[in-house]
Specification:
2 domains; disordered N terminus; 28% strand; 18-stranded antiparallel beta sheet; alpha+beta; 563 residues
Length: 563
C-alpha cells in the first residue's frame, strides 16, 4: 500500500464543532443525535504483483474428479480511475471524503413515527420504531451527476463510455442531447400507450369503471351465460380430456414391443382402419381409448371456442370493448400510472418514473456541457492462474485477468436488526436489508495469458469488454419482507427472503387489510435493475446491450456449501 491517508470522523452531534472540546450540559447532550462513525481513504493505492515478491495462493479445492486445483492470485490493484489497468500507480484512489464519508451507525426504525418526530428518518420507514438497527453505508450524493444510481441512466442512453476517445460529444440537436432525445422517446411511447387506453373509452371513464366492467363481463360461476362459468367448463373438460389421454397412454404401453413399433403414439393402429388386418385385443383396447380421447379433445376445442366468443363480445363490459381488451387495459394502466382512479393522471407508475428519468438525464447533460465532470471512480484489477492437478499426474493451466475501470458503489447500504424468529418466538433472528449499487464504466475479462497472446492486438481480440455496467440490487423491505440471516445445523450460512405474510403482526404492524398490505408492498418496495451498455468480444464484435428493470424477489433462499 502506497501513499494512503485514512480519515476517521466521529459525529456525536448534528452540528460541526470548530472550537476546543468542552463539556456538554444536559440540554446539549439531549440534542446529540449519534450520527455514528464516518471514514474515508484519500490518495489510496494498493498494488500487489507476483513479480515484485507478493504471493497469494489458494489450495484445498478439488474438482468433481478429485483433482486438486491450485489458484495463484498473481496481481491485485486498487487505484484511482485512469491507472491504465494498474500501470500508472500515481493515479490515487479516493474512497469517500470529508463531506461524503462511508459510515457505520446505529439508528432507530421509523415505521409508525410522524414525519416531524426527532427520530424519524425516511431511510428507515420500513423498520419498526421499537428496535434499533446497525447500518453500514457507502458515500452518498444528492447531485445528479455524482449520484451513480442517477448517472447510470445517462450512461445507458449515451450508448458509449462518456469521456473516452470517440465519446466526448453529447450530440446536441435543437437544444437536446442524444441521451435526452432517447429518454424522451421512451416517455413518448409510454404516453402514447396511455392515450390509446383513454381513446378506447368515453371521456371521464375511471379505473374503477374499467374494473366494474371487467367484473360485469366475467360474472360468476353459477351463471351459465358468464365467462366465469365457461372458464370452469373448459377447465373441467380439459381435466376430462387429460384423463382419457392418460388411459390411451396406458393402453399404448400395454401393447407388445412389435405392436408399438408399428404404431406411433397417438396414432390409430393400422389394423383399426383396414378390413384386411385383424387387431389384437391390446390394439383394440388402445384404439378404443384413443378414439375416446380424440372425442374429448374435440369437445374441449368446442368449449374453448364458446369461451373465446364470450371474451370477445363487446357488449358484455358495458364499455364498448370486449373483456380481453378491458383486462389488458387495466393492467397496462396500472403499470403506466399506478392505482390512481383518473385515467389521465399519472402520479406513479412507469410514466412518472420516466419523467423523472428525462429530467435527470437533462440535468446531467447540462452539467457536462457546462464543464462539470463526474468525480473519478476506482480502477480495480486482479489476475489469477489456475493449475489443475489431474489424477493421472498431468496438469492443466488456465488464466484469468479482470480489469474494472471507473467503478462506483455509492448509495449502497446494509442494515441489520433483530426480531423474534418466525419458527420459534422465544429466539431471535438477525434480519437485514441490502441496497447495492455497482456501476463500472468498463470491465475487461481476458482468459489468454501473455505467453499465448503475445501482443496487444491478440490480447484485445481475446478480451470480453463490457461497457456501462450497472447493477442496482435490492434485497429486503424492512419488517415487511426482511432478508433473514441464519446458520444451518451443519455450519453453513443461509440467507432467506421469505414469502409475504399479511397475518404476521410484525410485518403488518399497521393492521392493514391483505389488499392494502400487498398494495403497499408493490407500490413502495424497491425493485432491482440491471443494465449493460454494450458487450463486445475484441474490438468490433458487438453483442449488443441489456436492460432488465423492475425485478422484485418474492422468495429467495441461498445456502452456502462446503467446498
Amino acid at each position: 500500500m502506497k501513499n494512503s491517508k485514512f480519515i476517521a470522523l466521529i459525529a456525536l452531534a448534528a452540528s460541526p464543532a470548530f472550537a476546543d472540546l468542552v463539556a456538554l450540559d444536559d440540554q446539549e447532550l439531549q440534542a446529540a443525535t449519534g450520527e455514528g462513525l464516518g471514514f474515508a481513504l484519500e490518495d489510496f493505492a494498493l498494488v500487489s504483483r507476483g513479480d515484485e515478491g507478493s504471493t497469494l495462493k489458494v489450495t484445498g479445492i478439488d474438482d468433481s474428479n478429485g483433482g486438486e486445483i491450485d489458484i495463484n492470485w498473481t496481481e491485485l490493484y486498487i487505484l484511482g480511475e485512469g491507472s491504465n489497468k494498474g500501470q500508472n500507480t500515481d493515479s490515487k484512489a479516493q474512497i469517500g471524503s470529508y463531506l461524503h464519508p462511508w459510515v457505520i451507525r446505529s439508528a432507530r426504525g421509523s415505521k409508525g413515527l410522524a414525519v416531524g418526530h426527532r427520530d424519524y428518518n425516511e431511510d428507515y420507514t420500513g423498520i419498526g420504531n421499537d428496535v434499533a438497527l446497525l447500518e453500514f453505508a457507502t458515500d452518498s450524493y444528492s447531485s445528479n451527476l455524482q449520484n451513480t444510481n442517477l448517472y447510470s441512466d445517462f450512461a445507458r442512453y449515451q450508448d458509449c463510455v462518456y469521456g473516452q476517445p470517440g465519446c466526448t460529444d453529447l450530440g446536441y440537436v435543437n437544444g437536446d442531447s442524444l441521451a435526452e432525445r432517447k429518454a424522451q422517446a421512451e416517455l413518448n411511447a409510454l404516453l402514447a400507450d396511455q392515450a390509446a387506453i383513454q381513446g378506447r373509452y368515453a371521456g371521464g371513464t375511471t379505473l374503477t369503471q374499467l374494473e366494474n366492467g371487467r367484473d360485469l363481463a366475467y360474472g360468476n360461476v353459477n351463471d351459465a351465460n358468464s365467462i366465469a362459468y365457461q372458464e370452469k367448463v373448459v377447465e373441467d373438460q380439459f381435466d376430462r380430456m387429460s384423463d382419457f389421454k392418460g388411459i390411451a397412454q396406458t393402453q399404448y404401453g400395454l401393447m407388445s414391443e412389435s405392436e408399438r413399433q408399428e404404431t406411433a403414439p397417438f396414432f390409430r393402429p393400422e389394423c383399426a382402419t383396414s378390413i384386411w388386418i385383424a387387431c389384437t385385443s391390446r390394439e383394440d383396447a388402445y384404439d378404443e381409448a384413443l378414439v375416446e380421447y380424440f372425442d374429448e379433445l374435440v369437445i374441449l376445442e368446442e368449449e374453448r371456442t364458446v369461451l373465446e366468443e364470450r371474451e370477445l363480445d363487446d357488449t358484455r363490459t358495458g364499455l364498448g370493448q370486449n373483456y380481453l381488451v378491458v383486462i389488458t387495459d387495466i393492467d397496462r394502466q396500472k403499470a403506466l400510472c399506478g392505482f390512481d382512479d383518473n385515467l389521465s393522471t399519472c402520479e406513479d407508475g412507469a410514466i412518472s418514473s420516466q419523467r423523472d428519468t428525462v429530467t435527470n438525464v437533462e440535468t446531467i447533460a447540462m452539467n457536462l456541457s457546462s464543464g462539470m465532470r463526474q468525480r473519478p471512480g476506482l480502477d480495480i484489477g486482479a489476475t489469477f492462474e489456475f493449475t489443475l492437478n489431474r489424477a493421472d499426474g498431468s496438469t492443466r493451466n488456465d488464466f484469468l485477468d479482470i480489469d474494472i475501470r471507473g467503478l462506483y458503489i455509492d448509495g449502497s447500504s446494509f442494515k441489520l436488526w433483530s426480531r423474534p424468529s418466525r419458527e420459534n418466538a422465544a429466539q431471535n433472528e438477525l434480519n437485514a436489508e441490502l441496497r447495492l449499487n455497482i456501476f463500472a464504466k468498463e470491465i475487461d475479462i481476458r482468459a489468454c495469458n501473455d505467453n499465448e497472446c503475445v501482443n496487444e492486438a491478440q490480447r484485445e481480440a481475446a478480451t470480453l469488454n463490457i461497457d456501462n455496467f450497472f447493477v442496482n440490487l435490492n434485497l429486503g423491505y424492512g419488517d415487511v419482507q426482511p432478508l433473514r440471516l441464519s446458520a444451518t445445523s451443519d455450519g453453513n450460512f443461509e440467507f432467506l427472503l421469505d414469502k409475504l405474510d399479511p397475518t404476521d403482526p410484525i410485518a403488518n404492524s399497521q393492521g392493514l387489510s391483505a389488499e392494502e398490505f400487498y398494495q403497499d408492498y408493490y407500490a413502495n418496495s424497491p425493485k432491482s435493475n440491471v443494465s449493460i451498455g454494450d458487450v463486445r468480444i475484441g474490438t468490433n464484435n458487438s453483442l449488443g446491450g441489456l436492460r432488465i428493470t423492475g425485478l422484485r424477489a418474492q422468495y429467495l433462499k441461498v445456502t452456502s456449501q462446503d467446498l
